[in-house]
Specification:
Mean pLDDT: 90
Shape: elongated
Radius of gyration: 26 Å
Helix content: 40-55%
Structural class: alpha/beta
Number of strands: 10
Order of helices and strands: EHEHEHEHEHHHEHEHHEHEHEH
Largest sheet: 5 strands, parallel
């Protein structure tokens, strides 16, 4: 059996690509951390990896804040056949990440036995049985399979990885075109979460006479709500407007759109609703006069054009709009929805 260090601290070590981290990794690490006082996680990456190593390090730090997360991002041989000095190279890599003696080395694959022999510590093959039933049910849980079909394995992805693979669908358009109603219907149809419009709440609280600071707060608050909700969505996030629509409001209200409103992460698809819907003044409407409404519509469209955002036009009655929106979303998602 491995012995604790001279200071009485029991230390564990895990390395992997975590490309991306999934339930198998999480379960392995959670089990390992229960067996030691200190656990070090080494994230190994190559420059041409499909997900950058720096991103994966951030994920692991957020998932395991009480563990020591280290990163090796320089090229290194991946198998002993690639380089006759494979094990001396990896002994140096591990020693830099974990200079203290290793008591337990945790892994889910057979390489762990030889790695433990090379770097020290007792090999504990925790991952061999973790989630075995679930893996059998889905045909194997591997990072390669997840990268190919991330939505198929959605239930096995931690929140930061869901954020990475989620699609945001944003409703865009002027007042009284049915954005909120359509957003609610789409969220129910796709069994996912909806981010409501912050601007309406703001204007109901403070009035519709907005200045630059109001518009900045509205746009930034909307984006903050979207980003906070993405890890909780069911593959798709439905957003009832975002900061690009606030930029259109800003252009109408103060004559320009601050740069802070157009620098956020864009939605994957904007559904821009046509003005063929009847105008209903609910007390918070501003541009109901036909000429103003037409100008506002042009401005809203120009914002998407300038941002080079992917968009689909949505027209017709309420059912026609819903059907057109579903077709556009399904076309965007393609194989991910199957």
């Amino acid at each position: 059996m491995a012995q604790e260090g001279g200071d009485g601290v029991k230390r564990g070590f895990i390395l992997g690509k975590f490309l991306p981290p999934h339930a198998g990794h999480i379960s392995l690490i959670e089990a390992g951390r229960r067996l030691v006082d200190e656990l070090t996680i080494l994230v190994c990456s190559l420059p041409d990896d499909p997900i950058q190593g720096e991103q994966r390090v951030k994920w692991m730090e957020s998932l395991f804040p009480d563990c020591r997360v280290r990163w090796h991002g320089a090229p290194a041989p991946q198998t002993p056949e690639e380089n006759p000095h494979f094990w001396p190279i990896w002994r140096r890599i591990v020693r830099r990440a974990h200079p203290e003696p290793i008591d337990f080395l945790f892994a889910g694959e057979s390489y762990g036995n030889e790695l433990a022999r090379q770097v020290g510590g007792l090999f504990v093959p925790l991952g061999a049985r973790i989630l075995q039933a679930d893996q059998a049910a889905i045909g194997g849980l591997t990072a390669t399979a997840i990268r190919e079909q991330p939505w198929r394995y959605w239930d096995f992805l931690p929140a930061p990885v869901r954020d990475h693979y989620a699609f945001t669908i944003c409703l865009h358009g002027v007042e009284s075109v049915g954005k909120s109603m359509l957003a609610e219907r789409l969220a129910a149809h796709y069994s996912t979460v909806l981010v409501p419009e912050y601007g309406r709440i703001h204007c109901e609280t403070y009035g519709t006479d907005c200045r630059e600071q109001d518009l900045l707060l509205i746009g930034q608050s909307q984006q903050a709500m979207i980003e906070a909700a993405r890890p909780w969505c069911n593959r798709l996030l439905i957003a009832d407007t975002d900061a690009l629509m606030t930029a259109a409001w800003s252009q109408m209200m103060i004559g320009y759109a601050p740069d802070q409103l157009i620098c956020h992460r864009q939605a994957d698809l904007y559904l821009i609703l046509g003005t063929d819907a009847p105008f209903v003044d609910d007390g918070t409407r501003v541009y109901g006069e036909p000429g103003e409404r037409a100008r506002f519509d042009r401005v809203a469209r120009e914002v998407l054009t300038v941002a080079r955002a992917k968009r689909v036009e949505i027209w017709g009655d309420w059912d026609e709009r819903f059907d057109a929106a579903c077709r556009a979303i399904d076309d965007l998602c393609g194989a991910r929805l199957t």
